[in-house]
Structure formats: C-alpha cells, structure tokens
Here is the input.
Amino acid sequence: MRIEPATRLSGELSVPGDKSISHRYALFGAMAEGQTAISNFSSSADCHSTLHCIEELGVQVNVKGSSVTIQSPGWQGLRAPSRQLDAGNSGTTIRMLSALLAAQPFETVIAGDASLNRRPMERIVTPLTRMGASIETAEGGLPPLKIRGGGLHGIRYDLPVASAQVKSCVLLAGLMAEGETTVVERIQTRDHTERALPIFGAPFRQNGTDLSVKGPSRLTGATVRVVGDVSSAIFFVVAALLVRDSSIMLQGIGANPSRTGLLELLLESGANIHRLETTVASGEPVSDLRVSYDPGLLARFPNVVEGDVIPNLIDEIPILAVLGTQLEQGLAVRDASELRKKESDRIHSVVSNLRNLGVMVEEFQDGFRIPGKQKIRGGQVKTYGDHRIAMAFAVAGLISEEGVSLDDPDCAAVSFPAFYKCLDSLHH
Here is the structure.
C-alpha cells in the first residue's frame, strides 16, 4: 500500500473500542456467572482471539457488529477445550487467559502465531507456578504453554517488571485462589483491571502500591461499554499536529490517566489539542478531542523521554519516533528495552525504517536518538508484521516528500482494521 503526502487533514472520527479494556471485559465475562453484555467491543483481531479462546472453554459468545454478549457458567463451570487454544498475535490473550487456565482442574495448551511464540512468558509462569499451577513452556520460556491447573493459593507478588498484563494475570488468578493475593506495583501501569473488578463484583482493595483480591470469589455478569481506544487515536492526533492546516475531531476517546502518557506529554507541551468535557463510561473516563496543526509544538516538546513515563506510553513510541524527526531539538528515548519484546523488536523496527526513509538515527539497547528537524524523504517501509509500526509509518508517509510504501499494511487489523479507511476519510 502506498501512502501519499497530505496537504491537510480534516473531519470527524470515532476509533474502535479500547483493546485493553475489551480483552478484560471478555475475560471477566467468562469468569462471571450469567450474562455479560459489552457494547463498542474492539474490532481488533487480538480481542477476537480472546473471544474464540473463551468459546473453546464452553462459554457462549454472540457477536453482532461491536456488540458482544457472553453467557458463562462462571470460572468453576468451564470445560476442557478439545484442541490447543490459539491466541493469535495477542500477548494480552495468552498472558491473562493463562490465569484462568491455571485455576482449572484440566490440562490446556495455549500458543499463538510465529510472532507471539517468540515473546517471553516466564513473567507469568513464575507467579502462577508459585500459586500452585504446573506450567511447561518451550525452550527459553516461550509458548506453547502447557498448563495443568487447580488448587491455587494466594501469594504476595512484587512485580519485577512494570507490566499491566502480569499484574492482571496475578490478580485474576488470585480471584480463583484460596486466601488473599497481593500484587505490589512500584511503577504504575494501566489500571483497567482494577477499574473493572468492582463492576463484576470482585473484592478488590488498594493500599498504596499494594493491590489485593480475595478468593475463591464468585463474579457476576455485567453490562458495560468500552471507550474509544486512545492508542489508536494517537496516530491521528500526531498526524493532525504535523500536517499543515489540519483540524480534526476525535469522538469518545478513553481519557484514563494510566494510558494517556503521550497525550499528556503533548498537552503539557502546549499542543493544539482541546479536550472537551470528560464523562465516565463503566468506570473509565472518556472525552472528545479537537486537534489542529501546531508548528510551535516542534520547539516546545521535550527532547528526552525516559524513566517513569515510559510504561504509560510504551505502545506509542513508534508514533513518538515519527514526531521526533520533526522536533527542533530532536528526540532521545531511553529506558524502553521492553520494546524489544513486543510484536516485533520495535526499537530495531523503528530505527531501520527511519533510515530507509532517509532519517538519521542512533540505536541504543534501550531506545534511540533522532537528531532534530529532519526531512522524511519517503520510500519502502518494512512493517515486520507489527500493527503499530504499520500505522506509525503510514503517518510518516503523510509528512514525507515522496510518500511511503508499506510491505504488509494488513497487519494493522490486529488492532485497527479500519485504520486506512479512517485515514483516507480525513485526507484532503
């Protein structure tokens, strides 16, 4: 697919339901007794991997557009799947569903596609094993995971890496374990699980950095609405800030402060983003965003992004790199070695593609440095099958001199099947 340079972007847009929240509502729906009705469920392939997996466990799932109804006997009434569970490309599916499998009295095997099967799983295997599950992995702690569960007991677990998936995995397992389970989180990560727990009747309390649940717990189905995915919206936000004369409106976007790391950095830098009135949907803040071209931002945005802000914008670093090429002072990103374990090695994916498009960049083990105010010539982009690389470099195409060609544009469907259609609707 070829993305041509844009003269301006304008119009209104809604983005799909938030991926992170959709996964969690689906899993809670499977754990809870009775019916869970979810509106604005994510259109992403990842979230539909979660739905397919819970169906294999005997949960009834009915999908009509973006409305999903889940009918479940509850976590104690699930049945052994007849085949290996397929998590597709979804790290959230395999890491969080493993908690549910660890509580079952049967054996399950779960794996994903070639990319997912290269991602590390020891981070969930360690706590789940401590809780009493038996888990075998492929060499190097990689999928497939063979999980024989049942008879879990609560633990106190100090998170060794800032990861919302690991935190959520341990908390979900704790709901099905005997006694209290506490996760100690020293660097805050996205808190969608904590916000969803009370909605499904789960006993949860937070005391400083201690997050605790009690089990075995009976959850009940709920009616919930998923807010718009801020990680999908951010591509359009950055595009509108960079493309001359642009002005766009993004509707119903999640405004959860544990997810809006890059948006907050932009707002703190005085970017031309107007956040309209914030309301709450199913415990999650939501607002509309009006975004307009802002050349002055290029002198105001910080030239180093590192430390505690990284976990809250880890998914946005590919698009942040595109913004970095235009900043007057350039941009250094550090403390982001976690990026090497994503759908692709995102540090390498970003650096090699920027170089392909004529941008100078220096690579580090934990990030990169981009000297300031560079022209993006254009050319070939290798997506590495990674949705966020595809979408970030599509935006690079809009501000390039010659346009860009994406080798595998369809990988964007993992999180945002209608991405190019939405981009096209703003292109004038």
Notes: The chain has a mean pLDDT of 94. DSSP finds 14 helices and 24 strands in the chain. Residues 19-225 form a domain with the UDP-n-acetylglucosamine1-carboxyvinyl-transferase; Chain fold (CATH 3.65.10.10).
